[in-house]
Design brief:
This protein is α/β, with parallel strands linked by helices. The protein has three domains: 126 residues, Rossmann fold, CATH 3.40.50; 231 residues, Rossmann fold (3-Layer(aba) Sandwich); 100 residues, GMP Synthetase, Chain A, domain 3. It contains 15 helices and 25 strands. The strands form six sheets. The protein has a seven-stranded mixed beta sheet with strand order 9-8-10-11-12-13-14, sandwiched between helices. It has a five-stranded parallel beta sheet with strand order 2-1-3-4-5. Strands 15, 16, 18, 19 and 20 form a five-stranded antiparallel beta sheet that branches. The model has no long low-confidence stretch (mean pLDDT 92).
Length: 491
């Protein structure tokens, strides 16, 4: 446990060490590590030294990590015990990696590495560089689910505008509360929670990664008030057989997002945490990350649980057609956003930046619609729309129907090639433990009672577990790739 005073001293000392390593205006500093107190300190130390943080997705392969380090010209890398063994391979693939800082507690297990704690012990504190405003704060690489990762450039103003505007629009952290960090710290969702709790004061409880028993024990022991989870994490918590053994009554806010959640799962989670406000956040890395929020009150009313909520105070959101014209309420189009939280652009990718940021708006690539009361409903990624027999089918709608089958624990829907229909709706299903496995026809007929027949799955497969991407989402690319590998329309 550390006080704010303790942390401030350590941050200033590590910033001094970074300055001695040559961190000047805008030098990138990478962090390849599971969640830790040192990670949070580094997020403060890098801008304190006038640098730019590059949180590395630790779920990537070494080749992908090397690519991101090369592209961002990151020459200083912080690693923990888990990732120290890959440093040799990273050095072989990227000769520009000149400084490696070992974030463990003991002596560095690597040649040519320096110890984080040693640096703090021997380095004098550095005066804050007061980096802020429109200066680049960090490079946050996209998860890669729609192509090769791109470095999203976010300024300090981007991040703070999003945090202030979101908390003002829909409170999601408790002043002087306690935030539990279990989502990866390289992800903007966790960073947003961290910044909001810093603004309002309070404590940070850190777990290296998501583990249901450890999460429940931490909430119980430390009286956690706020936590951010992706739907797959929510599902693992509410399904855990020991859920009732822990006192989870301290939780005031459960923030979720990153992928659609089914109504069935959401209602189960709300029953498991009756004292908590559930807050859904829709956004993306490029928006630092908030665009809309569905409040706790909206959840309690229960009439718009499939909505992503209303626009936050710092943003403008529209739904437009292919020409950029706003469409009427209830009409599906592309979701576009503008405001002071929108990214500066993609690192070294002017063409990608121009295609995303045009006519003054960030084009999200997400399909959705607004209702008459200004609530946004997200349908699906536009380029992942399943076009079957000339009809557009949005996977989120089908997933919501499949999940209502009493034997279904989790599901994902993708488009796969079909000789007759071009693409067919294909469901991948995880059956609840102890439940009788339904047949493909039973899943199909169940869905036809909830959605149009052409939207119902034409094929179903059953798996033990759904793959998770580097950002904690269900990896639909991995699920669909085997079907498209030999197709002339291979995407």
């Amino acid at each position: 446990m550390r006080t704010f005073s303790d942390q401030a001293d350590r941050v200033a000392r590590f910033a001094g060490a970074l300055r001695e390593f040559g961190v000047v205006d805008g030098e990138r500093v990478g962090i390849l590590s599971h969640n830790s107190d040192k990670y949070l300190e580094a997020l403060l130390s890098v801008p304190w030294a006038n640098g730019v943080v590059n949180p590395v997705n630790y779920r990537w392969s070494p080749a992908e990590i090397i690519y991101s380090l090369k592209e961002s010209e990151t020459e200083i890398l912080l690693v923990d015990d888990t990732f120290a063994p890959v440093v040799s391979e990273l050095r072989q693939g990227y000769e520009g990696l000149r400084v490696v800082v070992y974030m463990g507690d003991g002596p560095p297990p690597l040649e040519d590495a320096v110890g984080y704690e040693d640096l703090i012990a021997k380095t004098a504190p550095l005066a804050d560089s007061v980096r802020g405003g429109d200066a680049l704060a960090g490079l946050f690489y996209t998860g890669g689910t729609t192509g090769f990762p791109k470095g999203v450039m976010l300024s300090h103003a981007n991040i703070l505008i999003s945090a202030f505007g979101s908390q003002a629009s829909c409170p999601f952290v408790v002043p002087s509360g306690r935030t539990l960090h279990v989502a990866p710290m390289f992800h903007l969702a966790d960073l947003a929670m961290w910044v909001a709790q810093l603004m309002l004061g309070g404590a940070h409880v850190v777990l290296p990664n998501f583990d249901p028993p450890a999460v429940m024990a931490a909430i119980d022991e430390h009286r956690v008030t706020n936590v951010v989870l992706v739907p797959s994490m929510v599902q693992m918590l509410v399904d855990h057989p020991e859920l009732a053994r822990f006192d989870l009554s301290s939780v005031r806010y459960i923030v979720y997002g990153a992928e659609p959640i089914t109504e069935v799962l959401l209602r189960r989670a709300m029953s498991a945490f009756p004292q908590a406000d559930f807050v859904q956040c829709y956004g993306m890395t490029e928006l630092a990350p908030m665009a809309t929020m569905l409040s706790g009150e909206d959840h309690r009313q229960g009439t718009r649980l499939r909505s992503a909520g209303r626009v936050v105070a710092h943003a403008e959101v529209r739904v437009v057609d292919q020409e950029g014209n706003e469409v009427p309420p209830g009409t599906i189009g592309e979701i576009v956003v503008r405001g002071g939280h929108v990214m500066l652009g993609y690192w070294h990718k002017p063409e990608a930046t121009a295609s995303a940021l045009w006519d003054g708006w960030m084009h999200t690539g997400d399909g959705g619609y607004m209702d008459d009361d200004g609530y946004l409903f997200v349908a699906d990624r536009i380029k992942d729309v399943i076009i079957s027999g000339g009809e557009n089918v949005y996977a989120a709608e089908v997933e919501n129907a499949v999940a209502k089958h009493p034997a279904v624990a989790a599901c994902a829907v993708v488009g796969v090639p079909d000789d007759r229909w071009g693409e067919r709706v294909h469901a991948i299903v995880v059956v609840k433990p102890g439940a009788q496995k339904p047949t493909e026809e039973q899943i199909r007929e169940h869905c036809k009672g909830l959605i149009a027949g052409y939207k119902s799955p034409r094929s179903v497969e059953f798996v033990d577990v759904l793959p998770i991407s580097g950002t904690g989402k269900i990896d639909k690319r991995q699920l669909s790739e085997p079907y498209w590998a030999d197709s002339p329309r291979n995407r």
